[in-house]
Amino acid sequence: MKRALFTTAVVLASLQSAWAEEKTLVINSYGGPYEAVQRKVIFEPFEKKYGVKVQVATVYSADMLAQLRAQKAAPQFDVVQFSGGQEIVAAMEELLAPLEASSLPNAANLYPFASEGISKGYGPVALVTVMGLIYNEKTIPQAPKAWKDLWNPAYDGHVVLTDLSNTYGLQSFMMINKISGGSLENWQPGLDQVTKILDGSTVITSTQEMQQNFAQNDAWIAPFAQDYAYVMRKAGLPVKFVQPEEGGSALYITMNAVKGRPNADLAAKLIDFSLSPEVQVELAREMRYSPTNRLAELPADVAGEVVHGEGLQQLIRFDPATVAGIAPKMVADWKRTISH
């Protein structure tokens, strides 16, 4: 009898452990304000709605892909976010669980570019951050309109460039190269153009340095991200963002289900929750990310600072797989150029 009771207790403990595991979703985020806002707008409301626990780990995109590879036999994450196109590689390596459109009701209202990955084995684009130009509206002689304004002689000595070791710097350089007549196969035109504007310009490596230059070093203009212009403005700096007339560069943030996890249904629900127009409006309001759900109606003050609607159709996305292959050589060439 005692043995039977012991066996029953063990079985119940095992079941309770399994139930607890099934009620917990593990997802990565990117720390700082981004993660804080996601907790407030997505994870905590989702927990209340579905009675589950969302466990968040701060893991950036490249490291997240490395962890998925290392954990392939026993994955530890249910949902992963990528911001650099790693979802394409992860899907090719069968690290992600394909999603059915029927499990994502909000996917029907996404812009086509945001939902096309679902049929290719990876998750939808939940948010877009746009690379364009940020500028000090109080000190710059004339507000910029185009990428070519970066080499306007009137701005000499007041331009800030970001090193290509930073994703924002890499995206910015590829836009400069494209506007200068280059391509992903030939980035010499971009390097030649950078050489012309390096004298008197500042090259930084981090977002913190960008804010310092606008606050302390009389920076007027820089190629940088839409959302970070808002971060700087909240810090009291008179910084504005403009989508250049030649178009902006798009960085997609995707949410993907991981293969081999027991919570596939809940994972899909969390991803779909992030695609809802209500959540996307809040993320645009809180962080100035561009929504991918066409039903997201932005307040006027937010809409004036966020690329949305038809503006999203003008964005340029450089093929992540191609960029991953050329980036090391491009970065090396860049470092030689700026060191001269």
UniProtKB/TrEMBL annotation:
UniProt keyword annotations, A-Z: Periplasm, Signal
CDD domains: PBP2_polyamine_RpCGA009
Signal peptide: 1-20
One GO cellular component term: outer membrane-bounded periplasmic space
UniProt GO BP: thiamine transport
Any one GO molecular function term: thiamine pyrophosphate binding
Pfam families noted in UniProt: SBP_bac_8
PANTHER family, sorted: ABC TRANSPORTER SUBSTRATE-BINDING PROTEIN, THIAMINE-BINDING PERIPLASMIC PROTEIN-RELATED
Protein name per Swiss-Prot or TrEMBL: Putative spermidine/putrescine transport system substrate-binding protein
Species for this entry: Allorhizobium borbori
Lineage: Bacteria, Pseudomonadati, Pseudomonadota, Alphaproteobacteria, Hyphomicrobiales
